[in-house]
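User: My advisor, Dr. K., asked me to get a structural model of this assembly before our group meeting. I'm new to this, so sorry if the format is off. These are the inputs:
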Amino acid sequence: MNRGSVVVVTERCKGCGFCVEFCPTHVLKLSSAFNAKGYHPPHLVDGDKCSGCNLCGMYCPDFAIFGYREPQVRPVAPAPSQPGKEA
Amino acid sequence: MSTLTEIGVHNPVEDFLRMERIPSIWCPGCGIGTTVNSFVHALIKTHTDMKKLVMVSGIGCSGRVGGYIGTDHFHTTHGRAIPFATGLSLANTELNVVVYSGDGDLVSIGGNHLIHAARRNVNLLVICVNNMIYAMTGGQAAATTPAASMSSTTPYGAFEPDINIPQLVDAAGAVYVARWTAFHVKQLETSMAEALKKKGFRFIEVVTPCPTLYQRRNNMGDGLAAMKDYKDRSKIRNGAGTHEVAMLPGEQIIVGKFVDRERQDYLTLMRSRLGANFQEWVDAPPQVEHEEGEGCGEC
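Assistant: The format is fine. Below is the predicted structure of the whole assembly, which you can bring to the meeting.
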């Protein structure tokens, strides 16, 4: 499965809870902390499970959260050894 | 450790919005912002030219959408979004005109304009955000308010039944009719992308929660409760007859793409009637001969 993460702009959040409810992997939770307007913004609780599908971003009515896929680091194959030069 | 901007991570929706106006005026739990996400993703998907996109809206909470999206926007008088948009789309045929407004504006006050724009098949995409009430003006009952609902103008519950919007626009002759709820973000995005590419009068109804003015008076919980309710009650039936899709309290909300047909739009019809002389007509319209007023003879 793809790995990803979310970015939360806490000051825009109005605490509606759409992202927490409809996250397919249930990795978000409303935090106990407040933002400047007195709402509880969401935070990531189980970061390893986030697939970065951006469904939270699609649901957020205040453009305060979005998900992204982490760029995949592909393992670099070692250069083929040339038997003639080794000896 | 690379920062987010270095690896190119940012919200793609923000490129299409006027971020200096955010946060929006919408209440916590309102679903209008969710429909904006779907609309912007549809714009990205269809590679729409933002220089040739015009948003037209009337008065209301949903009428503010055009102000938040970074295109040319025409904020008109209450209920008259479609007449203004008709003029725009006929005067400059290159424009892609989108009417984004609410149910009170489009269906209740501007109901007649909606019917006749659908009948003429003007090149318009109409997105009707149905929150079942006149929200911004103070929670008065609209034509879409379900029967027996409390509102500021119906303290004993609304006596009249509500209107079935897809059936109305289908009967009037719209070429594309769909209904989704704010819960169906991906389907709504696909539907909007389809409709953006089509010609003629296209209509998408989006059912959204209104926690402050509709649900609070009717003891229906907050915005999240409404979204869960849509999840439980909605049933996707593409191609369903529009006479079967009326929304009744407590029963299934039938969503989907109901109508997708081809019909000549108003501009094509006009040009085919005028034929090759079209440009002559535009340059020098025929003069009306004024008859000598003789009266009726009695006065």
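One thing worth pointing out at the meeting: The two ends of chain A are 44 Å apart (CA to CA).

User: Perfect, thanks a lot.
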